[in-house]
Amino acid sequence: MALLKSLAAREDDLSNPANQLKFLSNGIFKKGELPLFKDKIAETDHFPLKPKKLEILQLNLGYMCNQVCSHCHVDAGPDRKEIMTIETMEQCLEVIRNTGAHTLDLTGGAPEMNPNFRWFVEEASKAGIKDFIVRSNLTIILANKKYHDLPEFFKKHKVHVASSLPFYKRDKTDKQRGEGVFDKSIKALQMLNAVGYAQEGTGLKLDLVYNPSGAFLPTNQEALQNDFKVALKEDFNIDFNSLFAITNLPISRFLEYLIASENYEDYMYALVEAYNPTAVENVMCTNTISISWDGWLYDCDFNQMLGLKVDSKVQHISDYNEDLLNDRNIIISQHCYGCTAGAGSSCQGTVT
Amino acid sequence: MSKTYYDPADLRKFGNISEWNEELGTKFFDYYGKVFEEGALSAREKSLIALAVSHVVQCPYCIDAYTKDGLQRGIDKKEMMEAVHVGAAIKSGATLVHGVQMMNKYDKLSM
Lengths: 352, 111
Hints:
The structure holds 2 protein chains of 2 kinds. Chain A is of the alpha/beta class. Helices cover 34% and strands 10% of the residues of chain A. Chain A contains 14 helices and 8 strands. Chain A has an 8-stranded mixed beta sheet with strand order 6-5-4-3-2-1-7-8. Chain B has one domain (13-109): AhpD-like, CATH 1.20.1290.10. In chain B, α2 (43-56) runs antiparallel to α3 and α2 packs across α4 (77-109). The radius of gyration of chain B is 19 Å and the shape is extended. The mean pLDDT of chain B is 95. Chain A: Its cofactor is [4Fe-4S] cluster.
């Protein structure tokens, strides 16, 4: 079920990342029924986990969102007021102009809700980054008149749009993301297609992000992509480029769901059983730096939500130094099993 | 020991059957894995067949496993329920077709 309020607004125990981390280290892991993630990766000499070449800078522009999805690892929602300031954006722009990374990835919440979003996109697009991604929840485009021209704005700045759509059918989408989300998402995708997204010869990329609507793992990304392509074309005449299949990580609201539905243990067993040592080599924390709304640096967006800042002398955008950062050890815990299950999972989909 | 015959957590231990007979266990799981690979039938079709058969043989572990497998593959609840009805129809048909045997026997024994 989609929710009305974030964990933070409900003052739920799980809104405190320390409680989540404690939960993820207790129970089946403390009893030794399942191996700790660090022991698992040590079996193949991957501990401590080290970064490779930095390829992606992921910026979280704030936790505010027009939706309150039941699986959200950010615990985003309309009641979240954390928003990146223009001062932090300026510090980020300085980093973007000098980074060796080839991809800039803006996320949230709904990044479009940041009042300086358009200014930031305009400035960042001048930096010559090869791939400039904005993660859009789609419904924001229809949420208010002021967002209706977002497809045109994205097109103007040649932004690569990555959109969440949990399924190609109404019931599952609405159950996870809220009543009416599916119809609005379909309309938004049609608007993006209409300005040229995912149309031949335009160079405008539109990718979809799939995550399972429940306590199960995603299946083969290619098979899902095919199912989505056929269904969306036949039913709604929608085109898109690629589908990223993302595993839900057992943190924040998805962890809350797993516990409440008594699926937590089975889910962790499934993740550990599907552990793939090849995926460890390419997990996104090895090529990504995640920057929070207030400028702190993290190994990934999930570690950001767990409050696990990078293990480095450099922890804030104001001191950013790529060489020093690349020498760090990546912070891991049991939630990391979510990125190493099956074909692996990252913000760009599978990793093997 | 559990006081019920079935414990959902036992499904996770299925692989342990090889501990008491490694050769046969390994052969079984190799065979099982091969059966469910893409072939003339898609893995999706095989998943639906497995779901239907799970109901016919009334295996709670199999029902759990192939409901989850179907969800992972994007099989929706309508498709799943239709598959269960296929299984149920064959099962009830198999019962009813024996009615012919009953009729034959009845006729043979009656004057």
